[in-house]
Amino acid sequence: MKKTQIEKIYKENAVPANIIRHMQKVSEVAELLIKKFKEAGVSLNEELIITACLVHDVMRLKEDNKSVNHALLMGAYLSRTGEDELAALVTKHHFEHIDDLENWEEKIVYYSDKRVAHDRIVSLKERFTEIGERIAYRNPELEKKVFELEQEIKNVIGPLPV
Ligand SMILES: [Fe+2]
């Protein structure tokens, strides 16, 4: 998706500057990971990953209950505009979708988001424990799976770039 299109989405949805900064930081993490994946010989849809990172939390403030979370809201918005592939990546970035990740594109978007707290790159441990993710999302079983995802990534790319 073009930069102007992403900016239009921000405008239409009145996305606050701090959320935009968060999404940009997540895309920076993803970019570093993509580079390593490429070096490891894995081909990826880079544009799709970066776009998903840049729009994943657009509906963050629009979620009013957990059953219709911001990821689902944004996924539905993107589906309505015919962006089905992008919609899948955005829908699955939500913490609870760890078991649904099917390809590296989805895994990179998911994982990159878990490495950013607000607009700061942090370790998974920091994100889950020291910073204190919102209590509703604390789930040791799921957190363990995110660490397993990190290991899965390291098995392909070697040491993490961030
Ligand atoms: Fe996020």
Walk me through the structure:
This protein is mostly helical and about 160 residues long. It has one domain (about 5-155): Hypothetical protein af1432. Helices cover about 60% and strands about 0% of the residues. It has 8 helices and 2 strands, in the order ααααααββαα. It has helices at about 5-10, 15-40, 45-55, 70-80, 85-90, 105-115, 125-130, 140-155; strands at about 115, 120. It has a two-stranded antiparallel ribbon. A hairpin with a 2-residue loop joins β1 and β2 (about 120). α2 runs antiparallel to α3 (about 45-55) and α3 crosses α5. The protein is globular. The mean pLDDT is about 95. The structure holds fe (ii) ion. Fe (ii) ion (FE2) binds near residues 22, 26, 56, 57 and 113. Fe (ii) ion (FE2) binds next to α2.
Please write out the topology.
Blueprint: H1 3-12, H2 17-39, H3 46-55, H4 70-80, H5 84-91, H6 104-114, E1 116-117, E2 120-121, H7 124-130, H8 140-157
Fe (ii) ion is lined by residues 22, 26, 56-57, 113.
What is the number of independent domains?
Answer: 1
> Helical region count?
8
Largest sheet: 2 strands, antiparallel
Q: Give the number of DSSP strands.
A: 2
Q: State which percent range the strand residues make up.
A: under 5%
Structural class: mainly alpha
Radius of gyration: 15 Å
- Give the distinct bound molecules: fe (ii) ion
The overall average pLDDT, rounded, is 93
